[in-house]
## 1
Amino acid sequence: MNAKKIRISCILFLLCICFLCGCEKQQSAAKNKLYVGITYYNQSDTFLSQLNICIREQLDQLENDDFEIIIAVRDAAGSQRTQDDQVKELIDAGCNILFVNLVDRTDPSEIIDIAKENNVPIIFFNREPVAEDMMRWDGLYYVGADAKQSGTLQGELAVDAILADSRIDRNKDGKIQYVVLEGEPGHQDAIIRTESAVNTLKDNGIQLEKLGYGIANWNRAQAQNRMMQIIGQHQNEIELVLANNDDMALGAIDAYKKLNYTESALPLFFGIDGTDVGLQAVTDSELAGTVYNDKEGQAAAMAKLAVAIISGDGLEEIEFQNEKYIYLPYFKVTIDNVDDFTNTES
Ligand code: GAL
Ligand code: CA
């Protein structure tokens, strides 16, 4: 009788232990789950489609036995309304962190409100919200790159090329006739890149004459159209094309090809991003240079930050600017070092 009681007590005791362990295991599993909801302003954007691959790779690398990572990706296809709804849907689905590439960088209010209400932190990326919005909650972060630096580096690439080859001033008037192709109006990487590239040329004593500009929204086909119009007005007077990104520089090159211009009548083209197609054009000497937009670095910073926020571990090691911003540096790319960048791609 006593032995039976002891046996039953032992079984009950073991059952209790199993139950408690089970709970603990479940709790720690819940704690170590990173459920990332990502929404892009437009997934057909060349640079962002490549950044998306890097973000997935970085998150996959951080997954281990203690840390489960689930990723849900949405494309807002140019509509802020759609993106607001996507954020609601992702939070309802259980996301505990959001990576938001805003459609309209001046209009994140609805997204911030709902994230704050549900205590789901946001890492904005690539399209920088204005400072006042970033101050609205301490669960908001930004990962990107310094727009001014990219323009300055593009300007320096152009200065070096112009000083190295007097044939670039084709009409020998001592000035460089140039055209600018710009990204979306209001985007930090459009206004600031143009300004800092042009100022860098001027500061280095290059005399400039602006022949025209076109807004082409980062898009290759739009850039080709705009450039065809500008060539129509100025024929072979254009000596330099500064594009806010590689796709638009490539669109400008497409325009000259379509019009069958000979190589000696072509201007110099500069882009920014170092996308696969951009780097290939540098290798082929079609693009005189580009500025590498460090997608691997940005993706790694986002993944690391997300893990630190959710696990509560390692946040103090991250070097922020103004407590919530992380900016990765840009790099100059020419034919001389393009291999260093294409090799990291594989
Ligand atoms: C820029 C990039 C562009 C475009 C844009 C979208 O940083 O250079 O190519 O992707 O972001 O926001
Ligand atoms: Ca000239």
## 2
Amino acid sequence: MTSPLRTGLIGAGIGPSLSPALHEREARELGLECRYERFDLDVLGLGPADVGGLLARTRDEGLAGVNVTHPVKQAVIAHLDELSADAAAIGAVNTVVFSGGRAVGHNTDWSGFRDGLRDGLPDAARTRVVLLGAGGAGAAVAHALLRLEVGTVAVLDTDAARARALAADLVARAGPGRAEGHPATAAAVVLAGADGLVHATPVGMAAHPGLPLPAELLRPDLWVADVVYRPLETELLRRARERGCRTLDGGRMAVGQAAEAFRLFTGLDPDPARMRRHLLELVGPGREGSRVA
Ligand code: NAD
């Protein structure tokens, strides 16, 4: 009997993570036995500074690779032998693959969002897109939007300096005019001429309920994507649909990042549609909603 392929997740407070279920079920579907383990800094009594030691432990124990999440997506970079070009551009890693004794960092959050938008809203207009939230998820989404050839990404954040810093970084990578940074108070003006809105703040999660901007700003011709996926139907998506907008839930990005990480760990081709059906089972019956793209 062969031993299972081992992978896992390093982060803090990761008990509720859906990744073990998503990865292990998809492996089974493909005839592979996989054990996806949690390395929870909180449970282990460790802090972000211990990520290097924990990474070495997972490599020495023979794991094929690990996902990395809050609060060590940046801190892990100092402990890698190699970084993919996309992860270097974004400045964050969510997937580390151990190969030939080397630890190679990737970012599949951005490609997860890209694939989700392509699959869920394939004909979405992309001349001008507003991105609300310039944190870790926002940086990955912004990278995806540039790779999808969005003309201009207008970044908004309550922390205006953060929005401007991300926009400056995007312009440095993609060229003049490809990004702008604004305070969140400029939402009405900035959204007026936009094709789409991507929401990448924690507002709408169970712990941060509510709307991140006034519902009156959601016009029927605006598409609206959320990165929050617990709940799958956020207040923002519900209100956007009521106002006639086409929507994309955060489960698309969650499945996309998991599928690409799975491919990197196993070398196998996962089925993202099957993984999405599994995610919808996991986040609760009746959540999908026929109008959620
Ligand atoms: P973060 O803390 O790094 O960044 C959040 C940013 O939002 C901050 O810059 C903050 O100033 C800003 N912000 C907060 N409230 C705001 C508001 N009302 N208006 C404008 N800006 C506001 O957080 P993060 O790691 O980027 O995570 C954000 C969300 O993305 C979380 O809910 C997380 O669960 C989700 N996420 C989803 C996926 C996925 O696969 N779907 C992947 C990563 C993160």
